[in-house]
Design a protein that fits this description.
One of its GO terms (cellular component) is cytosol. By secondary structure, the protein is of the alpha/beta class. Helix content is 50%, strand content 15%. It contains 17 helices and twelve strands. 48% of the residues are buried. NADPH dihydro-nicotinamide-adenine-dinucleotide phosphate (NDP) binds next to helix 9 and strand 7.
């Protein structure tokens, strides 16, 4: 007993003595990163996400080495909890299928874990960890009380019948439900998880738990606890952020040409808002190729094909004159002043970034999570293209999910106009804090550093205040 007390005191003392001690920043960050590589082998996307944040943290550690103490950064890079589970379900042929489910509850220092569920065959633990890690800083940047988490499955919804989707969602939720709750962990959608899947997931949660706890998931249908603007929020928010970034350079979105990759939830509403603000969206895509439409996107047709018929972008090209479908083509070869990658991680590489720069692109904002490779971001820096990282530019989705939670908690529902105004203000603030923090650390216009540092400081200060847990 005595020796335990004694060693505790010694530990506390050593914390006090080490507090603020100058550190060799490059060496310290390299050690953190080596440890990440060693402890998380075979997870390249997670390594990539951590490397980017650590690079930005060098500016912080040079100013205040307290953040190198108390195992703070090591704790932040280690999820609080990682849940991996079997998801058995029966297909339309009566065959038993088995998928793998994940929920990584990364950091709850600011509030309940919050982050989407992704259903895509490429999903593995490393992908979910990279998304969960990004989510911590993104959620912090919104200024709302939400922690970071992410989940999903290697289930491929493409080509599945409605009944198969329902069977899968019910099986997935049968396990997930024991780990979530409105004060614990609140999942939402992501790639492959839209309104239909959230419906089946919520139904199964309600059935098992026997109560209408509508704050347990966000992205719900409007007549059972959903929020207006949640569907549009990530795409609209990305465009609002782009507007702010352009305004800082004295530029406007109207009369510019915009490329939006993808044609899912984020892409469709980025296209809608960009065109509403007077831009012309000249190209969009899916994993089979891209559509070039120099006169802009016919939104009615796009909504019909993607949201009602669940079709492909090639169907859009077939249905309308004056557009071209480029099978397996590179969308970044299209000329435009603004590019919004809104599909998936690492979809825009260094070579494509050079093509964008050669074609006169001036602004890039990530609607997707980590769609630009580190090489692409380096090209943007060298060629003076203004670049907004996803954790700032696509924060509108999760922010509006938090607004949905507020409405659920107060049993209220807000108007479209009011909710959109809240989203607009949140994105303006995300831009302000990102830009201001970049300047504070003598990196004006470096929105990667600004977003990482601003997101980090709030989480780090809360972790320091709450002790070593
Ligand atoms: P959806 O499933 O609705 O759409 C994804 C789109 O990306 C589809 O058009 C899909 O095409 C395309 N896509 C997927 N993989 C590839 C690929 N390898 N190459 C080219 N296109 C591809 O997902 P979301 O729109 O919800 O999500 C898109 C991105 O935005 C993701 O990175 C997600 O994490 C991020 N995000 C989403 C938020 C949200 O609120 N939904 C919030 C914040 C970020 P296909 O149909 O051919 O696969």
């Amino acid at each position: 007993m005595h020796s335990l007390n004694n060693s505790t005191t010694q530990q506390q003392l050593s914390f006090v003595l080490r507090k603020g001690t100058p550190v060799n920043v490059d060496q310290t960050v390299k050690e953190y990163y080596d440890q990440i590589l060693q402890r998380n082998a075979g997870e390249p996307e997670f390594h990539q996400a951590v490397a980017e944040v650590l690079q930005s943290l060098k500016y912080v550690l040079r100013k205040d080495s307290t953040y190198a103490e108390y195992g703070l950064i090591e704790r932040m890079c280690e999820p609080e909890r990682q849940i991996i589970f079997r998801v058995p379900w029966i297909d339309d042929q009566g065959q038993v299928r088995v998928n793998r489910g994940f929920r990584v509850q990364f950091n709850s220092v600011l509030g309940p874990y919050k982050g989407g569920l992704r259903f895509h065959p490429s999903v593995n633990l490393g992908i979910i960890k990279f998304l969960g890690f990004e989510q911590i800083f993104k959620n912090s940047l919104t200024g709302l009380p939400i922690g970071g988490g992410k989940g999903g499955s290697d289930f491929d919804p493409k080509g599945k019948s409605d009944r198969e989707i329902m069977a899968f969602c019910q099986s997935f939720m049968t396990e997930l439900q024991r780990h979530i709750g409105d004060k614990v962990d609140v999942p939402a959608g992501d790639i492959g998880v839209g309104a239909r899947e959230i419906g089946y997931l919520f139904g199964q949660y309600r059935r098992i738990n026997g109560r209408h706890e509508n704050g347990v998931l966000t992205g719900k249908g409007l007549n059972w606890g959903g929020s207006l603007v949640r569907r549009e929020a990530t795409g609209y928010g990305c465009v609002y952020f782009t507007q702010e970034m352009m305004a800082a350079e004295g530029k406007r979105l109207d009369d510019t040409r915009v490329i939006v990759s993808g044609s899912g939830n984020v892409a469709i509403y980025a296209i809608e808002k960009a065109q509403e603000l007077g831009a012309t969206v000249v190209a969009f895509s899916d994993s089979s190729g891209y559509v070039y439409c120099p006169e802009g996107v016919n939104l009615e047709l796009l909504h019909e094909i993607k949201e009602v018929k669940r079709g492909r972008v090639s169907d859009y090209a077939k249905a309308i004159d004056h557009v071209e479908f480029h099978e397996n083509g590179n969308i970044w070869e299209v000329e435009a002043e603004v590019a919004l990658p809104c599909a998936t991680q690492n979809e825009l590489d260094g070579e494509s970034a050079k093509i964008l720069a050669d074609n006169g692109c001036e602004f890039v904002a990530e609607g997707a999570n980590m769609p630009c490779t580190p090489e692409a971001i380096e090209v943007f820096r060298k060629r003076k293209i203004h670049f907004a990282p996803g954790k700032a530019a696509n924060a509108g989705g999760v922010a509006t999910s938090a607004l949905e939670m507020q409405q659920n908690a107060s049993r209220d529902s807000w108007s479209f106009e009011y909710t959109d105004k809240r989203l607009r203000n949140i994105m303006r603030n995300v831009f302000k804090v990102t830009a201001r923090t970049a300047e504070e650390f003598e990196q004006p216009g470096n929105y990667v550093a600004g977003a990482n540092i601003a997101g980090f400081r709030k989480v780090a200060d809360a972790m320091l205040a709450q002790g070593v847990i």
